[in-house]
Amino acid sequence: MRGDETGGSATGRPGQLPLGLEPRAGGLIDRVRPMLPTDGEGPFDDPDYLFEPWWPGIRAFVSVEDGRVRVRAESLVDPARHFPELAALPLLVREDGVVLDATLMVLDGEGRPDTRMLDERLAAGDPVRLIGTAALVASDLIVRAGRDLASRPFGERRAALEDVLEPAPWCMVGRGFVGEGTRVASVLGPLGFRAMSARRLDARLRRGRAGDAWFRVPLVAAPRALPAILAVVQRLPL
User: What's the topology of domain 20-235?
Assistant: First the structure.
């Protein structure tokens, strides 16, 4: 998958939060071998699946270990440099030793995901110009309290994710709906989403291709800008 209300920073300057952001992968995050979605043919209904938006951003694995944040994204050599706001993540994670599977985005002034602004931020030189506001939507919990959850079903991992991550305007667990994929698609397409995620609730993590455990389902998107992220996550009429 492509604002920090605390006012914190990773710089360690007086009056700011002494949080660290590691630019390179290490520790727990090295264990992660991503599961890759299967291309779906179209919306479907199934009570065994969770359906949710496919957010327009960068898929990343984000760990919080010993109070420090590490980020790994296949599309970026140094994702931490482009998203320094993630240094505040330990304030929102209720446990140490976790790895999140998430989407990183850049929001415009109205809180809408903006792929153009994301591209501009990623193309910026050094120092990076912090164009827009970084946002993170978590979809899965890979490690909890240092324990690999790959053998646990997705529904259990998702419930654990909601226990672990404290929601904030810029960081939250995605919102989904069980069973009624065609209904979800009928809402997301007119909102401008080009795809939705369909995850089987009883499926364990699979290394490599997901098979029927996870589909990226294409949608017929309306030619419009996406709504504000909170409007989708908190007020989507699902």
Answer: D-amino Acid Aminotransferase; Chain A, domain 1 (3.30.470)
